[in-house]
């Protein structure tokens, strides 16, 4: 599919997705969201892609939020539909069987922070700034931010960030547990790629099941999560990857996973 605002390529099993609207700091309008959803769908069904990276084009921003210029004229009905469209993309990322890493290379605000929070792991550059400025615009986060942030860092810190609308620097986001790691800007892409390659070596099946257990387990009470985990654990014993992984250990060689 031809996409104007989303660039994507797959190299050695790593799918790199770039939100490419730098003149608007990669703001998410309905067209960008539609293209992002189609691209991610394609990647999910492409057996070559093992790990996904999402980043933003240009020097300044990962994604500076949902497109305020598009939202300015929306009716309540359109606003609701727009939130549902954004949430569909975020939920799709969570449901993908492939791990998704956000490379936050600058501003990640509003819908941009929501996009990063939907990913499995967030690496950020030192110049990144994150926040939820929605209340300064008379709205609230609408692409899952109130839910994902409070689950990630707890409701108190989430309330502080959302109620104040303030932006915090990458180091504070690290201290608060919003991002996994912070790197100098010039090193970010390489560090994200190193992590993606390290994950890809482990085979899609085990990593995908682990993602499934973590993401879905978060929506369960603990005992149900344990039950769910043990079912997935059991299913993996019916796979070639489990035979290969354990066989390779016993034979003292490196495992070569096939994802089946
Ligand atoms: N929507 C639409 N356009 C945006 C945008 C956004 N979220 N963020 C930046 N842009 C545009 C600017 O309007 C500007 O375009 P023009 O040159 O045509 O005027 C261009 O990108 C460059 O931006 P600035 O000149 O403002 O750049 P700056 O360096 O001075 O400031 C910034 C950078 C602090 C990030 C500032 O652009 C800003 O505050 N952006 C808005 C951030 C925001 O409020 N995001 C939340 C949106 S609401 C949301 O996301 C709802 C939701 O949860 C679904």
TrEMBL record:
Indicate whether Electron transport appears among the record's keywords: no
Which InterPro entries has this protein been placed in? ClpP/crotonase-like_dom_sf, Enoyl-CoA_hyd/isom_CS, Enoyl-CoA_hydra/iso, Enoyl-CoA_hydra_C
What keyword terms does UniProt attach to this protein?
Lyase
Q: What is its EC number?
A: 4.2.1.17
Which GO molecular function annotation, any one, does this entry have?
enoyl-CoA hydratase activity
Question: So which domain of life are we looking at?
Answer: Bacteria
Q: Which GO terms describe its biological process?
A: fatty acid beta-oxidation
CDD domains this protein is in? crotonase-like
Q: Which family does it belong to?
A: Belongs to the enoyl-CoA hydratase/isomerase family.
Would you tell me the protein name for this molecule?
A: Short chain enoyl-CoA hydratase
| Native species | Geotalea uraniireducens (strain Rf4)
């Amino acid at each position: 599919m031809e996409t104007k605002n989303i660039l994507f390529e797959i190299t050695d099993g790593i799918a790199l997705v770039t939100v490419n609207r730098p003149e608007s700091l990669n703001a998410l309008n309905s067209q960008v969201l539609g293209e992002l959803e189609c691209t991610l769908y394609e990647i999910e069904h492409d057996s070559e892609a093992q790990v996904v990276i999402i980043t933003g084009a240009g020097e300044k921003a990962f994604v500076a939020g949902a497109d305020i210029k598009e939202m300015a004229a929306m009716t309540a009905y359109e606003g609701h539909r727009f939130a549902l469209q954004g949430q569909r993309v975020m939920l799709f990322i969570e449901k993908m069987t492939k791990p998704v890493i956000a490379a936050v290379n600058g501003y990640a605000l509003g819908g941009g922070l929501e996009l990063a929070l939907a990913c499995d792991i967030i690496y950020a550059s030192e110049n990144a700034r994150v926040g939820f400025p929605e209340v300064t615009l008379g709205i609230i986060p609408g692409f899952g931010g109130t839910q994902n942030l409070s689950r990630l860092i707890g409701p108190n810190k989430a309330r502080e960030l959302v109620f104040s609308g303030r932006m915090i620097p990458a180091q504070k986001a690290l201290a608060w547990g919003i991002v996994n790691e912070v790197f100098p800007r010039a090193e970010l892409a390489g560090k994200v790629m190193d992590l993606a390659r390290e994950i890809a070596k482990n085979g899609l099946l085990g990593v995908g099941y682990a993602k499934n257990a973590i993401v879905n387990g978060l929506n369960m009470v603990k005992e149900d999560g344990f039950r769910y985990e043990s079912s997935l654990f059991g299913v993996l014993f019916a796979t070639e990857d489990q035979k290969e992984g354990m066989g390779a250990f016993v034979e003292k060689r490196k495992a070569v996973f096939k994802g089946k």
